[in-house]
Amino acid sequence: MTTQGSVWLATATIPEYDGIRADKHADVVVVGGGVIGLTTALYLQQEGASVVLLEAGRVGRRTSGNTTGKVTSQHSAIYANLLDRHGPGKAGQYATANQAAVEEVADLVNRLGIDCELARTPAFLYSAVPDSPLRREADVAAAFGLPAHFVDPEELGLPVKVAEAVRFDDQLQLHPARYLAGLATAFAQAGGRIFENSRVDELNTDHDIQAVTTQGPLVRANHAVIATLLPIGLTGGYFARTRPSRSSGIAVRLPVEAPPGMAISVDSPVRSTRPWPGGGPNGLIVVGSNDESDAESTYQGLVDWVGSAWGFDAVPEYRWSAHDYGTPDLLPFVGKAPGTPMLVATGMHKWGLTNGTVAAGILRDLILDRGNPSTGLYDAGRIGDVHAVAKLVKDNLHVGKEFATGHLDRLKGGLDHLEIGQGGLLTLDDGRTVGGYRDHDGELHTVRPVCTHLGCPLQWNQADTTWDCNCHGSRFTSTGAVLDGPTTKPLDTPR
Ligand SMILES: Cc1cc2nc3c(=O)[nH]c(=O)nc-3n(C[C@H](O)[C@H](O)[C@H](O)COP(=O)(O)OP(=O)(O)OC[C@H]3O[C@@H](n4cnc5c(N)ncnc54)[C@H](O)[C@@H]3O)c2cc1C
Ligand code: FES
User: Whose CA is nearest to atom 18 of ligand 1?
Assistant: First the structure.
């Protein structure tokens, strides 16, 4: 029996916090309680600032609670690419910052006494193709001072074809949800205030900054950090300067002991693996990119891959999916958003446990008016590579056009034909398209399947029972409540 949902969230106790009930004052308001918001809030509170953190749902339960839990400077095969695009200075800075972030996370876990299955382990990068770019990747990474070595593929212990491999020594794996619980607890113990179920609808910047919540109360502050995965609404235009990318994961027990290290393939489809201590010595986590396929096919692809590699009929115990954002030039956007006094952090390229820790340091230092070696590197105001941005905008338009021309599957028949647990787009007799879902009690829920961010049509995700917007990553529950921004508004009901 497979449980739908992150293995980490199912096996952690994250403290719960009340919703906001009255207006508050603070030096800093942090919007979003993922790894970036929590780390930033903790850093600032520990420095003596008074911080209020507003979280739309529960802390740590969106992308950060759905990661693979790898804390590593090995961000797939990135260093040769960074060198070619940005030159040795910036590529080297990225390497240094992210390797330092690995040690910073280890230090935080030890100092705060967080019980999160932290373990030192090698991180492998591999390819099934001989003469792949991996030898150069290892050389470039090593030249930047990273513990990278081109190694014998046998070292991985993976029963799949491996022609070339790179090993990064002394990296970390952890239980991400327990790590996040530890950060939240430490922040609250330092005097920080967390309000859950307190979605921020808008940020007014007329005099001081006001973070206005859907619930009514607002927080007045001198500084605002928007750590909502992608900045909400239209802030800084980041929705057009980033690209959402979804991945799915499974937790499975193998018939034999799992390979001890973390590994990620550079070939497509990407397969990212690591031990799953909760599953015993045979426990393995496998994560893969959704690429163009839907969530259900991605889950099946992961199960098939495990089954064929280890030669058994694999049945995962958990399966889950989440998304993160990439930028055209591979560097995150962290710092002051153009045209506003607000600070943002986005575009972690699925490496937010290290990149996000670097981001938290930058945000803290910007607010405390201190220097930070990574501020310029991750500058949130940069335009980025012109050709890459043009491609991104074109891709966005393509997505919109695809939807507008209606190439989406529609279910046959009317709403009455929806079975228990089934959802999808339906064309009514009068020609209108509505979104419908029949829940397990038989109740029918209908929505207007149009994204409340910028109006892209939505796609039904049967595997996760969500309404997803492929334009900029907003997601809604089957009944239309917001799960992920940039939107802050629930779906309309059909007229
Ligand atoms: C499947 C997968 C595996 C990954 N594995 C790894 C890994 O092994 N190692 C690694 O380094 N990185 C990994 N990543 C990337 C990493 O998980 C992300 O980069 C990181 O979690 C981003 O953190 P965040 O704080 O920006 O976002 P989130 O964790 O999504 O936090 C944002 C928070 O903001 C809240 N929010 C949103 N809108 C509002 C609003 N209007 N008002 C108030 N709150 C709001 C949300 O509810 C959420 O809690 C992975 C990503 C994916 C998708
Ligand atoms: S997220 Fe931008 S239109 Fe849906």
Answer: 352
